[in-house]
Amino acid sequence: MAKSRNEVGASTYQRIKRDIIFGDLAPGSKLKLDGLRERYQASMSTLRETLNRLASEGFVDALDQRGFFVTPVSREDLIEIANLRVLLECHALRLSVASGDTDWEGNLVAAHHKLHLMEQKMLAGDDSKKEDWKRYDWEFHLALIEACGSKNLLSLHSVLYDKYLRYQMLVLTYRGEEAVKEHRKVFEAALARDIDTAAETLKTHIDKGLEHTLAAF
Amino acid sequence: MAKSRNEVGASTYQRIKRDIIFGDLAPGSKLKLDGLRERYQASMSTLRETLNRLASEGFVDALDQRGFFVTPVSREDLIEIANLRVLLECHALRLSVASGDTDWEGNLVAAHHKLHLMEQKMLAGDDSKKEDWKRYDWEFHLALIEACGSKNLLSLHSVLYDKYLRYQMLVLTYRGEEAVKEHRKVFEAALARDIDTAAETLKTHIDKGLEHTLAAF
DNA sequence: AACACAATAATATCTGATGTTTTTGAATCA
DNA sequence: TGATTCAAAAACATCAGATATTATTGTGTT
């Protein structure tokens, strides 16, 4: 009766995390263990392991003897997250552009191309594929910094990206044309190995995103 | 029979983390659940929750269907950790020095004083209180950046500090006189609100520590 | 409206059971 | 000897259920 192969644990983790990021589990809401048991078809043990992991990443708050809550959102937190993303992602981008090889370039071209296609659809009004867009945006930003040479840095960045993404998903509005241009500019500067322009444009990209998200918050 | 109040969970977490940082649980070693059950007097449920948390922080590796291992150490990882610490801690220091108030100053003076006393003992040959020294060093570095205004930044830094500390504990040797001087220089620059000097000295402090640790690795 | 207090619900922990996967160790074969 | 195979043993991931403790809720009283 007991499924193994870490199926339950891994999938529960991913689904809960996804539901938090996409707002299906509202910020601040209580995560009752019995409720989660039904919703995710997992046992209490597995759920508590998952929630502990998410708590340590900062997506869930664990209050002593009062259980688990989806981490609340706030303007200050959003600002902190965006600033940290600028700090880490720009730093990683500089390292990556400085030492990326041919494979890195190829992967980056592919990622930007796919993102660009998706952005055209979004601009044309197809708002249905938020989840796909998220994936392409993520893959592009990852491709930019992937050659930074620091697994630890990539891992920290990944968590920050997801936290930032939750705020973007909360406000629901797409920034559009402007963001597309910024993506292209970072992309071209990175390919041209123009480190300063790439890093500055990336900073602008994140800062503008922050403004946009803050305005709608 | 079942203790509650989150006593078991919290204490188990702290003890295992401490044992990893201080090398009582060797890098790469297997964390057998039955063994841990005896050693830490906790049930499998609690242990798995704890290990998941530590895995997500990077102190433990969770291998699918093969259990938990103390995260291995490597030169590359040490270098990455040190570089990230420089990036985050110097950034935080700049923010903190720029906006620290009187309480911040007072706390910093106290932290440096206590650290200095402990350093004198260490220099005099009393090598027995590594754990105390660790606490005072931590409190000093925390006091420096505590006014940075970003909880997220402080939280990321705390994990990095502990990871870096494990490497320091592994090589067992104290850098001595030189580190004491660097501490004092950062301290004085911070109090004088000389942001650039403070940040540069802190960078030197961490870089020198890295060299020292790498040499003995 | 504020308070006390019992009833209810939820949590943290532990034990023990089950099916799977990994590891071990011995026997076999090249 | 060294490599291979395969069954036994060990360890893991998951689940269900029990207990003690703590939080929440609702009701009645002042």
Describe this structure in words.
The structure is a homodimer of 217-residue chains. The first copy, chain A, is mostly helical and 217 residues long. Chain A has two domains: 59 residues, Arc Repressor Mutant, subunit A (Orthogonal Bundle); 142 residues, Four Helix Bundle (Hemerythrin (Met), subunit A), CATH 1.20.120. Chain A has nine helices and three strands; from the N terminus they run αβααββαααααα. Chain A has a three-stranded antiparallel β-sheet with strand order 1-3-2. The model of chain A has no long low-confidence stretch (mean pLDDT 94). Chain A binds a DNA duplex (30 and 30 nucleotides) through helix 1 and helix 3.
Tell me briefly what this model is.
Chains A, B: It holds the Pfam family FCD. Two copies of one chain form a homodimer. Chain A contains nine helices and three strands, in the order αβααββαααααα.
What shape does the CA trace of chain A take? globular
Structural class of chain A: mainly alpha
The Cα radius of gyration of chain A reads 19 Å
Number of helices of chain A: 9
Side-by-side strand order of the widest sheet of chain A = 1-3-2
Largest interface: A-B, 30 and 30 residues
Number of strand elements of chain A: 3
CATH superfamily of the largest domain in chain A: GntR ligand-binding domain-like
State the name of the first-level CATH class of the largest domain in chain A: Mainly Alpha
Q: What are the segments of chain A in which pLDDT stays under 50 over at least 5 consecutive residues?
A: none
For the sheet with most strands of chain A, the description reads: 3 strands, antiparallel
Strand content of chain A: under 5%
Oligomer: homodimer
